[in-house]
Amino acid sequence: MNVKHILGLSFCTLLLIILFQQAGVWFAYHTQMQKTEAVLASSFKETFILVTDAQVNRLPYAEGTLTHMVYAPDSLRLNDEDRQFYYAEQTSVVLQDGYGLPESSLDSIRLTLGRILENERVEGSIYIRKLDAATGQTLQTSPAGIALPDQEGIGVLTSPRAFLHQGKGIAVEAIVDQQYFDHPSNLLFPGLTFLIAVLLTGTIALRMRLLQNLRHDVERQCEDFYRLAEQMAKPVRKMETYLHASCWAEAREQGQQVLADTEATLIRAKQEHARLRSHRFVWLHRLSWSMIPLAFILPALWGKYIYSEQWQIMNHEVQVCFEEAFVEENDLRHTRSLDVNHLRGTRKSFITGMTDYFRYQTDSLTSVLYRKTTDENDSVIYVPATPTSINGIYVSRKSMDLSEGICLYRAYGTQQLINERPVAVPPDMSRIDSLFHSFLSEAGLNVRSGVRMLRPAADQVISQTGDASIQRGSFVTTPLRLTEDASECVQGVVPGSVMTVIHSVWYLFLPLGMVFVFCLLCIVLLWRAWRQQRRLEQFRKDFTYSMIHDMKSPLQTILMGTQMLESGRLADKPEKMEKIGQAMNDECVRLLTLSGRVVMLTEIERGELQLHPVRMAILPLFNDLVTKFRLKASKPVEFDVVCSEDLRVTADPFCLQEVLSNLVDNALKYSGKEVRIRLSAEVAAGGVLQIKVGDNGIGIPQNQQMKIFNRFERVASGSHTTGASGFGLGLNFVWQVVQLQGGTISVKSTEGSGSEFTISLPL
């Protein structure tokens, strides 16, 4: 895959990630705003109720004094929270018109709302706006003199309106500016993680470009070598002729010409190598590897942050659901307690008196709201004339913990009344569990749940219903007291599950997972590109070494020999002169063999190689090879020849000899100090002649056995273990020549135990 394809694919993937990420962020924002809007509405209603109650409690009357009456027709279908809010709006009017108090302070509303929202884990700037409900005109703000945020802006929420005086049309509302995108956590981790993905993509593109340039450089070096090897044949033959004629100066001149061409090729290769080793590419290498840990760390931190935040949100939702279940069960207990204690319709025990305004209000509204009747004991009682909820507001100076909330505060008060009555009505654990599960389902939490009754001081569980087993990651609510001294409490439990939390914010984990997988793929591509680069660099290094060893060194040997013989210093040493001359001739043969092999490969590629197949015997060919390599070998070698005298095959004698010579030469190269080579030939099934060349050398790794017949491929472990040089052309030459003669070649090898090459030729 080239750089353009990788860049195109990476760009499309990044675009897809951006779309999913933006969709996830938008969905998270939308979901968070919906939940926060509901919390703000509930908190503002609670705040307004608390502020008006505080005004009532500051009236100069004794504890338990009834101040006024409030009511709500059942036709309004108000839940408990909205009914209390409706009562508070009536109370605000009564306090102004009946008791001459000023409106509720906007600052007190803002400060109280701030504390409640803090307990609800809602952050942001809070503004209170008093307005004319009819026209929408702003009359006053808190803080005073500060411009209100755009109510349609991002992260800006507005509460429902509460009437300070409905008759005058004066209302108040809260505005919360969460400054959503000012929080680093909302953009930091996604931005940094996406940046790492982009940088990895850019690094891969640069690495692939570098790899492509390196591949072109290697191909150019190979082409230079091919051209040099082809051009070498003519001057080397001339040099060989001059050596036979003892024309040392002419031979040296030819050698210097070939050496200069070789040096020029090597210099170009070294310059390319130096360019790729420059500071720019070293910096790229360091940058690419330094980003790998970041590609793992940042998504992990982001995922942990999302999980932690969502777990806390869900834990808070579980707490709210359990408190609602507790309050609901308390209301049902209170109704039951009134019935079993025969208190329905009687005056509350904690009421100590009433104000003149309450008496006036009672006289005015009794005939409208109540009708007189008797109970089963013939006692006179008053009941609502129409389906209406009627409540008396009284002075109560008991302090309330804002962290508990008004509903829980009132539930505790109701529970205390229940516990003080003669006939006890104990809490129904099964009903609490059922209500808890119902409220969880309404909140979108379709999970298992349970309830425990416990003694916190002794860390003792008295009883439990449902699935109340606590595991790691479970959602466990704050214990709610069943007695005034909190000696017995009730607690809700939702067994935790990592997948439950992840599933609840899948829209954030999906793009996170995509980024992580993309980074992982980038790292794999980066690693593969690095391995290919290392392989190409090693190939070029080995190739350069082979050029020096197999081309430059023979030429230098010839030049040194001609210089010594031309100087005449060895004129009186004929044996040494003969030895030097033979060495120079051997080096010429070596160069001509290399050149001839390259020329033959080129002819095969062009389809120009002419074969001259004849019927030939195999055993004489084996014997010639044994004689040749016993003389040539620089270490002890033992040959085993297994072949019948009458075994023949139709093949080109020169090409077949070159093929077998190459295999035997490799067996000598890639072996230990003592070499054992086995040459065998036999007729196999199907009329095929199988020629086998086996050795006891170092063997070929399994993962390289399919590559060794490729051009310029060499066994890396072989060159490192034995120090053998070469261009990686021999086995490619063998494979092409065998294929050209209609045969096949295969190899069986075990690393460390030798190799066996099998040539199959048609008879």
Write the topology of this structure:
Elements: H1 3-57, E1 65-73, H2 80-97, H3 106-119, E2 125-132, E3 138-142, E4 156-158, E5 162-165, E6 170-177, H4 184-244, H5 248-276, H6 279-340, E7 353-354, H7 356-369, E8 370-374, E9 380-384, E10 388-394, H8 406-420, H9 429-442, E11 450-455, E12 460-466, E13 475-476, E14 480-481, E15 489-494, H10 498-504, H11 506-567, H12 574-606, E16 614-617, H13 619-632, E17 637-642, E18 648-651, H14 653-669, E19 675-684, E20 688-695, H15 716-722, H16 730-740, E21 744-749, E22 755-762
Parallel strand pairs: 1-7, 17-19
Antiparallel strand pairs: 1-10, 2-3, 2-6, 4-6, 5-6, 8-9, 11-12, 11-15, 13-15, 14-15, 16-18, 19-20, 20-22, 21-22
Helix pairs in contact: 1-2, 1-3, 1-4, 1-11, 4-5, 4-6, 4-11, 4-12, 5-11, 6-8, 6-9, 6-10, 6-11, 11-12, 12-16, 14-16
- Principal-axis shape equals elongated
Cα Rg: 48 Å
Terminal Cα separation, in Å?
43 Å
Beta-strand percent range: 15-25%
Low-confidence stretches: 717-725
By DSSP, the count of extended strands is 22
pLDDT averaged over residues: 82
Q: Main beta sheet: strand number and arrangement? A: 5 strands, antiparallel
Question: Given the structure, what is the number of helices?
Answer: 16
Structural class: alpha+beta
Relative helix content: 55-70%
